[in-house]
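Pasting as-is:
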Amino acid sequence: MEQPDLDLDPGITDEMRAIRDTCRRFAVEVLRPAGQRLDRLTAEQVIAPGSALWDVLAKYKALGFVGGANVHDPDLTPAQHALLHCMVLEEMTWGDVGLFITCALHGMMPMFAAGFGRQDLVEFFAQRDEFGCLAITEPSHGSDHIAFTEPAYRDARIRGSLKVRRDGEDYVLNGQKAAWVSCGTIAGSAAVFATFPDSPHGLADGAAFLMPLDLPGVTRGKPLEKHGQRTLNQGEIFFNNVRVPRRFLLAEGPQAYPMVWEGIFTGANVHMGAQLVGVARAAYECALDYAKQWVQGGKPIIEHQAVRMRLFSMFQKVEVMRSHVRRMAIANATRPGGVPYPQAATVKVFATETAFEVTSEAVQMLGGNGLTYEYPVEKLLRDARTSMIEDGENYMLGLIAAARL
C-alpha cells in the first residue's frame, strides 16, 4: 500500500520528511520481513550467531542514529527534534516494535548518561559498542519497584531482590533482576537499581548506577520465551558480590533515589506511547488493504457500510493517539523540567490500550485469516498486548499518576 503523508504537524521540514521516508523504507525492507522470521524462532535462536537479528542491527547502525533512534541536527529546534523522534519511532515500529526496541537499546548508555548530566560517563560508554538495558524489575517485585507514590514503596518490611551495601568508596551488589530486562542476556552495560536491605525507608532507599556488566560476579539467565515482542531479547541478570566503583553511581538515598525513578518513567512512558502508534497504524493499514480485496456478499467488504464504519473507528483512534503522543513528546522536550508524571502516564496507557483495541479489531476484520501467520495482524496483536505490561503495568501506572492529581 502506498503510504500517504501522515505527518500533518506544523514545523516539519523537507529534511525531516526525508528521514521519515528512509525509516519507512527500512521498516518495509528490513524490519518487517526479519521480524516475521525471528518471531517464529526460540528466544535462544533469536540471539544466536548467524541470526537475522545481527544483520538487522548492522543495517540499523548504518543509518547513523544515536542511542534511542535520535537525530542531532543543529538546525532543528528542540520541538522539531521531539517531533522527528516521534516520526522515526512510528515508522520503525510499523515494521517491528520488538526488533526496533532491540536496535534502539544499542548505544543507549551515552544518551542516558547525558540525560543525567554525566559527561564522564558519556565518554566512558561511548567507547563501548554494545547494548544497554534498564535493570529494573525483580522477582516478586514487578510493580513494587516503580510505585514511588504508594505507601508500600516506603514500607520497611518490603525488601528488594537486588541489595546494595557501601564498602569504602565502592558499592557491592548481591541478588538478581527478573527475566523481563530488555536485552538482559546480551547487554554490555545497564542502568541498575538496587536497595539498601536494612533501611527503614524500604524500597525508596536505594542506589542507581550506570555501570558496565563485564564486572566480576555478573552472570545471565536464559532468554525469556514470551507471548509477544518475541524479537526483543529479555532475561535475568545475577549479581554475586559485584563491586561497583563510585564513579558509576547516579544517585542514592531516600530523597534522590525516587526522583531518578520518576524521571526515568516520565521519559520511558512518552517513548513507549510513540512506539505503539506504529503498531496500531500497521494493523489499521492491513485491515484497510484486506477490506479492499476480500469479497463477501458479492463485493469487496469495504463496500459494506458496517465495515467502513469499523475502519473509520480504527483510523480515528490512530489519529488521536498520534496527536496526543506528539503533543506530550514536544512538551516534554521543551517545558522546563519536562511534563508532570500524570501527563506522561496518559501517553503510555492511552497509546498501548488503543493499539490493543486497533490490533484486536484488525484480527476480527480478517476473520480466520487474521489468526494465521500469513497476515501480520496476529503478531501485531500479541506485540500490542505485551506493551500494556511492558515498562510498567498500565493499572499501576494509572495509580501512580492518580496520586499526583
